Amino acid sequence: MNTLSKRRLLLLALLLVLAFLPIFNGCERGARVEDAARTSDSLRIISTAPSITETLFALGLDDEVVAVSDYCKYPERAKELPKIGSLYEYNVEKIVELEPDYVVVLKENEILPPRLAKLGIEVVKVDHTSLEGVFDSFESLGKLFEHGALRGGVLRRAVGAHDRGLALRREQESRLESIRARTSKLTKPRVLVSIYRTLGTGKISEAYIAGANPFFNSALEIAGGVNVGRDLPGVAPTTNAEGVVSLNPDVILDLSTDGIERDAAARERDGALRSADWEALGSEVVAVRDGRVYQIFDDYATVPGPRAILFIEDLARLLHPELEPSVEQ
Hints:
6-stranded mixed sheet, 14 strands, globular
């Protein structure tokens, strides 16, 4: 598959789950199915998306997760687990071979659940299109997995998972309320979020931006900003140079989380190319004129899971530099 095709696949994945899974650079497939056998006496869970995997590990289910999607790379242990495919290319035979008690999918996934249902495999859906949905999944998954499943006449359960889910939700909601309290009375800049675009063309020809997108809308509102694309149709509408000029944002967030691992030199090189694209718009765009085009390379910016809080804290600091001493990392 050539580079262009891979990038198109990344974009397709992002649009399918709304929130942005452009970290699909693939994981090593070296882990064997036999590796999962060590947890045969425990609850067995398969994750089908990065945000799900991060949630399961945040709930302390390290030993219960026996396989993940091809695109899961955080935490590090996820890279070592067997891979079961993603998008339209799930390896159902491998899923069956791993004998899961539960397979967790995003609610948008319409491909895998009916196939697994025919095989009698339990599928659990979660909604990660919004912050509230992410928080709900902490609690609901924790409760489900603590309740457990019968296998071979033995109840397999993750003791303490529900309490951990409740605690994680309370901790993250508290952090968000702290940010909201500091930004609520400040002037809210109008922000354009560029989710995906072609790099280094010397212009903005076609960019996918955050539109009617619950996750980005909430993240920006809490961080003290307003999504300029919130009234546009679709979660990731396209725009071009003329569209950006028309929207005239105060701040532009250029998400560079395309799954390519970059060292410092590569980030600097790519950053210069990205900056040149935006600068071609000229001073009639307030964000360009004021030097408020920010590039974000951290992958958690596009994975709506437990690390989304880091993205929102980053946003608060970018949108309101005066809060730097107060907004904790």
